[in-house]
Amino acid sequence: MDPSAQLPPNPFAGVAWDNTLGALLIGGLASGVLFGITCMQTYIYYERNNDKWTLRAFVAALWAMDAFDFAITCHIVYFYVIKNFANPFALLGKPVWSLAVHVVITSVADFSVRIMFARRIWRLSNKNTILTAGILVSSTADLVVGTVIAVRTLTFSSIAQLQSESTMFYINFACGAFSDVYVAVVLSYFLARSRTGVNARMDSIVTVLMLYTINTGLLTAADACAGMILFVVMPDNFIYITFYFQLSKLYTNAFLATLNNRESLREKTEADGIVSIHLSRMSHPGSHNVTDPAPSAYSRSADTKRDPLAVMVQRQIDVDVEPDTKRESLRYE
Predict the structure, then answer these.
(1) Which of 38, 53, 184, 207 yields a CA-CA distance of 20 to 30 A from 78?
(2) Is the pLDDT of residue 114 over 70?
């Protein structure tokens, strides 16, 4: 007699675990990897940089939000995978409270990082209100819509009711993707205009900055677009949540990488002399601020008060502006 014939039928034979609990588990594991990268980048930042206390406090706040977000993600996975093990009805019941909290933390973290990039656009564009308003409006809309989704989620009696908020989810994902692409395009435009044509090495550094800006924006935008598309195509499973778990961590790591790469870019050009390039003054290529700094004007300590996203590209350039030899100093803010 076949022993398998004595086994009772599997009551969960029709339950799709792969795209529900499996998606949650994979999202939680990926979130853990990104949080590990956040910790590493935060450590590197405090080891290598001595910025203003406000920026250092902002980085600490970002790390704290990311740590709390990872703890919330772990609670979501634990609730559905462990606490409700072999209870598929939990997938149809009231959403766990930590799911709503995760949405709020993601919205706040994303908004915080985008504000820093909005500040960069403001200075790069010579205080252009319209360009800066573009990122502010989309980021604020993302924050407000995310908060509304979180509040309404707490009132739902079933996860299936999330479908009633599909329009809000579309707006949330769309605002996030638009903000990322907008920042990448605007910053790349002004970086391209900052090329002086004086020497190839300095222009190559600007090109590196442009590529880095584009790649950073595309990464977060791709994650938001993937989440939106999967929610449209497969709204009945949790695969889209896998991508949503990663959003805040991608933003945090993108910002930290921007801060930490300042040192490597300075070291690349340090051997060639000194030029301080500030983005806000290079947005108009024709206007060069020619100064006569002392030979010891640049030092590690003098650079500790620089702008959060400033990159100091150092190179000495002689220009024939006056009979005596002077150096052109372009402040890249």
Answers:
(1) 38
(2) yes
CA distance linking residue 277 with residue 274, whole number of Å = 10
Single-letter amino acid, residue 322: E
* In contact, 98 and 75? CB cutoff 8 Å: yes
Among residues 96, 99, 23, 109, which one has the least CA distance to residue 64?
109
Q: Which residue has the tokens 């499996």?
A: 22
Is this structure's pTM higher than 0.70? yes
What does the pLDDT read at residue 180?
85
pLDDT digits (tens, 9 = 90+) for 155-207: 888 887 887 888 888 888 888 888 888 888 888 887 777 666 666 666 666 66
Residues 6+ apart with CB under 8 A from 259: 45, 49, 51, 55, 59, 308, 309
Walk across the sheet containing 318-319 and list its strands: 290-291, 326-328, 318-319
Phi, then psi, of 332 in degrees rounded to 5 = -105, 95
Neighbours of 103 (CB within 10 A): 22
Q: Are 333 and 123 in contact (CB under 8 A)?
A: yes
Q: Considering just the CA atoms, what is the radius of gyration of the chain in Å?
A: 25
Cβ atoms of 247 and 105 within 8 Å: the answer is: no
